[in-house]
Design goal:
single chain; 261 residues; mainly alpha; 11 helices
Length: 261
């Protein structure tokens, strides 16, 4: 059906043009690699947990992490879907208009991020129980005074606690919130024909993030993974903002709209 509708608008040429394909790869290959790295970094912590703790007894760390990760990866379609639906309109307006439009686009995905973060925090145990039963749910009452004091006593004595996926999910909700913003910045660079410029920042931050996360995961298992993931996400967002500032394409954010006032 999609092919039929497309051909009714634009005649499609089914014979591949290798010259055009290679030209396109040479011109935009760095953006493709950068887009891959921006998605791959979400998998780093789970991969490190599998590598550093490869035995059956410790594999529960990777299971907890993958379960929570899959829940947020499903929701990453939100910013991409919204941006793809309006990108063709945004690229046809002035540079100032693009900055304003992307500002409102970031505000929209931030509101979705607020909702996801709130639900992952309030209903974390219910969500994890719904998708996996009670196998990956923490045994203590999450975020209660007793739970927090027990967690602090374990950390202060260098005893690493095993947390359930319902405890990890709220922190990954914050990662998801930052990922929403980072995804929109990818489209900002595309609209400004600067898509290849984000490759070096993504490459270096993945290398640095892998190094830092490997140290944190080795010493603090899944808690170190949470900290490492948040650090990587903040670095990606800050790096995108830095390059957007350098090329004067920073979106004009409607702060009152973002703060829901």
């Amino acid at each position: 059906y999609t092919s039929y509708m497309a051909e009714s608008i634009v005649p499609l040429r089914w014979i591949p043009s290798w010259r055009y394909m290679w030209s396109h790869i040479r011109q935009n290959g760095k953006y493709g690699a950068a887009f891959f790295l921006s998605s791959f970094h979400l998998l780093i912590v789970a991969l490190l947990l599998s590598i550093i703790y490869p035995t059956i007894d410790w594999f529960i760390y990777a299971g907890i992490r993958w379960l929570s990760l899959q829940l947020i990866q499903i929701l990453l379609i939100i910013p991409s879907s919204i941006a793809n639906s309006v990108l063709h309109r945004i690229t046809s307006i002035s540079a100032l208009g693009q900055r304003k439009a992307f500002g409102y686009l970031i505000a929209v995905v931030m509101r979705f991020g607020y909702l996801c973060l709130a639900n992952f925090t309030i209903f974390a145990t219910h969500i994890i129980y719904f998708v996996s039963g009670d196998k990956y749910i923490h045994t203590d009452t999450p975020f209660s005074g007793t739970w927090l004091s027990h967690l602090w006593s374990q950390i202060s004595t260098w005893t690493i606690p095993v947390l359930g996926a319902d405890i990890i999910l709220p922190f990954l909700g914050l990662v998801l919130f930052l990922s929403f913003i980072k995804t929109i910045y990818n489209y900002i660079f595309v609209a400004a024909h600067r898509q290849n410029t984000i490759f070096p920042v993504n490459l270096w931050w993945v290398i640095i993030g892998w190094s830092v996360a490997s140290i944190l995961v080795y010493h603090f298992n899944i808690i170190g993974g949470i900290v490492g993931q948040l650090l990587m996400e903040c670095i990606f967002v800050c790096g995108s903002w830095f390059y957007a500032t350098k090329y004067k394409i920073v979106p004009k954010l409607p702060w009152r709209w973002i703060m829901w006032t």
